[in-house]
Every structure is written in C-alpha cells, then in structure tokens.
Amino acid sequence: MIFIHQPVSVAGTMQLERRSLELQDAIPEDTVWLDLIRPSREEELKVEGFSGIEVPTREEMKDIEPSELLYVEDGARYMTGRLLSKVSDSEEPGLAGITFILRGNRLVTVRYEEPQAFRMYTQRAGRATGNGPTAVISGESILAGLIEAVIDRAADVLQLQGERIDRLSAKIFEVQDDPSARNTALQDTLRALGRHNDLISKQRESLVSMERILLSLSATYRTNKAPRELREDVRSTLRDLQSLEEHATFLSTKINFLLDATLGLVNLEQNNIIKLFSVMAVVFMPPTLIASIYGMNFKTMPELELPFGYPLAVVMMVVAAVLPYAFFRWKRWL
C-alpha cells in the first residue's frame, strides 16, 4: 500500500495532505513523503521508477550490520531502524524494521508493521512535521518529525512500564500470611518481571537503532551545512533519546533487583519447607529409636514382662518427641 503526502496551503500555513494511491495512479511530482506499508513488488517498482531509488527487501531490513543499515547509494541516503510494535498486554511485543530513504527533497519510508509512533505522527500530519506550522515542508523536516514521534512514543512506553514496575515492587514486599497465596503471587511476579524486562530490552534496542540514525544525520547535516534550525532539532532529539536510554537502563537495573528479591523470597519459602521436614525428622527420630529397641526379637528383655511395659514405652516415645519440639520452639527455630 502506498500513501503519499503533499504540501498544501491552509490559511497561509503549509500543511501535509495524506491520501492512499492506487497502483494505476501516477505519483504527483509535489509529493514530499511516500509511505510504503507492506508494499507489493509492483508498488516497489512504481516508487523506484518515480524516486530513482532501490527499495530494500524485508530480509535486507533485518540485517544488523551497521554498513547494511546506514549507507548512501546513488545520491540517496538509506537509514534502517527498529521500532517497538505491539505493546498491548494481549500481544507479544516485537521490533519492526523501518527504512527511511532521503533523496533530494523527498522522503520514502518502507515498513511492514504499523508502530504506534507512525500512527501518532500521521494523525497530526496536518500540522506539517508534527512540530507545528512550518514555512517549508521537506523530506528532512518530515523525517525529523517522525523521529520525534518515535521518541515521544518511547517516553510514553517507558513511563508506563516504570509505573507498573513500581506497583509490582510494592506487591513483592507485601506481607502475606497465606502460604498458598504467597507462592502463587511469587510465580505471577516472576512472569510479570520477565514480560517487563523483555519489553524494556526491546525498547532500548529500538532507541539504540534510532540513535545511530540521529548520529548519522547529525554528521551529514554538519558536513552539508544544513539549516541551523534543522541541526538544532536533531541535536535536541538526540539528547532526549540518550536520556531515555539512561532511563531504560535504570528500569532494567530495577527489574534485576526485583528479580533477585523475588528469587530470594522463593528460596526462603523453599528453606521453610526443608526446615519443616528436618524438624519432623528430628522429632520422630527418638520415638523411632525407642520403638526399634523394643521391637527386637530377644528372649531376655526385662521390660517385656512388666505389666506396665507397653504404656511406659508409649510415654517414653511421646516424651522423646515433645522434648526436641519444645527445644526448637525455645530456640525460636520454628
């Protein structure tokens, strides 16, 4: 599917108009942004012929080598990043490859998923770059607006995860008297920590990929002496991104602490169970010894002839069991 964006003048302000393009329709010359979503081969060829670029395949977008993600070819700059998608609780979070292609005054984006950041930007595309009205709409300004939307979305995700982790932290250290409920809560906590850690690690990976793009753009703009306002926007966005990376690292560290704390509580529960079995073994050891002595088959055993021999043996076994238990209670080992 191809979406085109054209600059239009509304009340003296240049804004973007977004609409879908059928395969048989011609691409207008004033198009500044071509957004390809799960394109067919025919759509790729159409855009390639119009823009003079080569649209990368989905497999090429999955490469992790920097030389395959950031490069210049035939006057076009190719930049591939990975954006977080499917952040809802009902879906498994994933990373979607997005390729940004800048050639002249035109931007081409290629994607096979619809990250929330793109939806956020396209919803406010009527305000040009998403940063408010601008006198000149270009592919570079649109790219800056898209990257800013990605950073805004990453901030929202990290803030939400931080709040959830805080609630989970309070739940971990909450005192629960019911052992069965406590064990179930610990298991649920471990699963939740795993989900949060997976999401934050993928968000951090996305931020690292976008940082590469911003560093590449910053170097290019500085070399080509791009407009000062554009260079300042890139530097400001880069600072915001790096602060989010630090926050993501902090959240990862907190998750590791909570994971260690949860595993420590699980070990305490297991130790309590083992301690219970150890105490039971010690409590029943003396009565077992007494029963074993009087269970031997010898002819000469004086106690066997006593009329009160059996009650005496029972009393000895009870006393032998009560004394270790009372000692453990006195030492507060139970």
Automatic annotation (TrEMBL):
Compartments it resides in: Cell inner membrane
Transmembrane segments: 276-296, 308-328
Gene3D superfamilies: Magnesium transport protein CorA, transmembrane region
Annotated Gene Ontology cellular component terms: plasma membrane
Protein name stated in the entry: Magnesium transport protein CorA
Membrane topology classification: Multi-pass membrane protein
UniProt keyword terms in alphabetical order: Cell inner membrane, Cell membrane, Ion transport, Magnesium, Membrane, Transmembrane, Transmembrane helix, Transport
UniProt-listed CDD domains: EcCorA-like_u1 (cd12837)
